[in-house]
Amino acid sequence: MRVIFNIHVQRYLYSPPDFLSVLAVFNRPTSQTDMNNGTVGAPRNHSNYVIPGLYDLSVEDTNWVLTSSFIIFTMQTGFGMLESGCVSIKNEVNIMMKNVIDIVLGGFTYWLFGYGMSFGRGPLSNPFIAIGDFMLDPPVGDALMGQIFAAFLFQLSFATTATTIVSGAMAERCNFKAYCLFSFLNTVVYCIPAGWVWGEHGFLNKLGAVDIAGSGPVHLIGGASAFASAAMLGPRLGRYSEGYDPLPLGNPVNACMGLFVLWWGWLAFNSGSTYGVSGAKWQYAARAAVMTMMGSFGGGFTSSIYSFWRHGGGMDIMDLINGVLGSLVSITAGCFLYRAWEALVIGAIGSLFCVLAMPLFDRMGVDDPVGASAVHGVCGIWGVIAVGLFADNPVPLDTTNGRSGLFKGGDWYLLGIQTLSAFCLVCWGICSTFLLLYVINKIIPIRMDPHEELLGADLTEHRIRHSQIGLSRAISALAPIKVDLKEIAGIQPIGINPGHERSIDQLRAAEDKLQQWQSYLEQVSGPRANLKMDAGQTPSDINFKSKTAGNVFSRRNPARRSISGGLYRSNNSELPVIGSVNLPQKPEKDPNFAWVD
């Protein structure tokens, strides 16, 4: 599970090899071993130092955490495919590039300062923000090097996911350079509230908030940030000119494939959040996987019924896709705290909230091309609150601090703290994103120019030109208003080899001029000329016999030719020459066809 810490500030004397590995002022999380040994709440003491809770991983736990991290990173593929399938074709590469940037820049800043803001253990840490452990890099020989790196990688996979959620909501009209700066700084938006819920210092953690795999810190923060960014950017050009119905998808198959990849990654997302398989944790890892699937079954069923009803027997694929994703978000916070029927109910309610919220946001003028605000924001709120209603006490783990949900015989405290958590996370996500984008907009305009939006970000930002998607029409429409199109006018469409195309054009030009040459000779020579050409011959191999002059002109008889000023001269007539008989003489005059003058 995501560690829920019991904090006991204590002092220990130690002589550690590295500061990060032997900070001895905090407890570790409760484990099965502690339960069996009666040492709940005591720090794990290894000779001369205490293992911090985040790094209390056995070999098998470390293997589980690393494997889960690898699988969670494949969710970036799912997000990319889903988002590229939802936007128009002229922006699909741009949305994929944003996903790459989220990992590159977001991952770098998470190592630089993000991890330390969530889980830092310095003396200046406070209930709002952690400070310490920046630029994490334990040296060789550190007793906890493996555990530290495993913990960092796991948390990194969650951080990049939270950032990627926002990219879909900003699709098709966000300046790519501004987005790069946003991705670089958006780590702050995620890491501070993640520390509130999961960090030893966090005030929500101290109050007893429960979120196993991130319905709140990951999805709710991402969804709230997506809502704020979509609202601040404004709708795409012409989005609501013909009503509020969804726009056609660029690639529905990609969107469906993205759902499957995300579905796969979500199993690691939730099961991996047991944070190991030692003791009793392996049992709850298995339960988390099954409950994750049960929640998605309930969500998919509900969204299907809704879509059939809304569309008169037809199925809208985005209703189904986002309904399933919304149910997965809803089940994430308490993924191993529910019974099977409860997971079905929670997933079904989350899916219904999602499909109802999407058209509502459109009517509010918040243009979210992929529905991230509804999927991750609305369903994230429900997922956090559902823990306060349905959660079991997962004995012997200390995930809920011994509490149960309201419907399981618990009191109102857990429901109250879960509601408070959702409120705090929503406020932080929206306000911090508005502030961040406001600052970025002062440096780089966050909205694309209208003509760039019409042409598509693939062409204007990445010099990738798609064919048969109306680009020529857009370029023609922009020409009268004197938009500078010089930089993009010569960009070749993707999917072709320009060199091959030029060679084909040369062959076609050669064939056309050969036909012109042959047709002309037939017209002007009439009964005076006899043109014979065998297969494989070129005009340089043709013997031309003028019956009137009685002369034979051929490549093998250059002395019998007379070419002057582009005219063929004979005793009786003066005929314009279309093709030179001796072809290699002046090839420079025609770049398309070397042997034509």
UniProtKB/TrEMBL annotation:
One GO cellular-component annotation of the UniProt record comes to:
plasma membrane
The segment(s) forming the Ammonium transporter AmtB-like domain are 64-463
Q: How does it sit in the membrane?
A: Multi-pass membrane protein
Single GO term (MF): ammonium channel activity
Q: Which residues cross the membrane?
A: 103-124, 144-166, 178-198, 218-237, 249-269, 289-308, 320-338, 344-361, 373-392, 412-440
Q: Which UniProt keywords apply?
A: Ammonia transport, Membrane, Transmembrane, Transmembrane helix, Transport
- The answer to whether UniProt assigns keyword Transmembrane to this entry is yes
Q: What is this protein called?
A: Ammonium transporter
Where does this protein come from, organism-wise?
Drosophila yakuba
